[in-house]
Amino acid sequence: MFFEDKILPNSFIDELEQVMLANTTPWYFQSSTTEKKWGYNKIKGEVDSSQFTHLILWPNQSQSFLWPIVRPVLFFIEKELDLNVISVHRSKANLLHPKPHMNKENFHPPHHDGYEENKKILSALYYVHDSDGDTHFFDKFYPDTPEEMNIVKKVSPERGKIVVFDAHQYHSSSPPRDNERRVVLNFVFELGEDK
């Protein structure tokens, strides 16, 4: 599955942007964009960097005042795609700043969000505002090792855009070059039987 579109009402898009870009929303420094080091040879163009994150829900429990604000994004996804969401494994926000050591062809280390092969797990990205710093999608899925991968799609951050995809698919972010920040919401959720 791969879905890319704007499905939220403008008033909700406005609210999410105001909350997520507010100077009162706390951010926490992370020295890397991925939690795990895969132990493989880097692929051409891969460069890691730091980022700021805000953990919203983990594991299946609210960790932030933001959860009631961002949770309706999943309701819109569920309705638009006619899904049966039975569990939300994680939700977080990522904030990237420009990185002088990275060029337009660079991207962060590829990773996947789903670890359970026998479950239907999807990831969703929500782009809070217009920015640059594409998300790269690769042709490998967990449990495959991320070696010798090819980029099959790039998605540019566009305010209000949602991307939904198989959580086992390797993907990566890239930092902005022309904007001061790139803010994305991420959801990882499990599906039950079809409606």
| CA-based gyration radius | 16 Å
Major pleated sheet: 7 strands, antiparallel
The CATH first-level class comes to Mainly Beta
Main structural class:
mainly beta
User: Which residue ranges are poorly predicted, with pLDDT under 50 across at least 5 consecutive positions?
Assistant: none
The helix tally amounts to 3
Output the helix-strand order.
EHEEHHEEEEEEE
Question: What is the overall silhouette?
Answer: globular
Number of domains: 1
Name the CATH superfamily classification: q2cbj1_9rhob like domain
Q: Percent of residues in helical segments?
A: 10-25%
Physical arrangement of strands within the biggest beta sheet:
1-8-5-10-4-3-2
Named CATH topology: Jelly Rolls
Distance between the termini: 17 Å
Strand content: 25-35%
- What is the mean predicted local confidence, pLDDT? 93
Describe this structure as you would to a colleague.
The protein is mostly beta strands. It has one domain: q2cbj1_9rhob like domain (Jelly Rolls, Sandwich). It is 13% helix and 34% strand.
Question: Brief overview, please?
Answer:
This protein is mainly beta.
Features:
195 residues; mainly beta; Jelly Rolls; 7-stranded antiparallel beta sheet; 3-stranded antiparallel beta sheet; 10 strands; globular
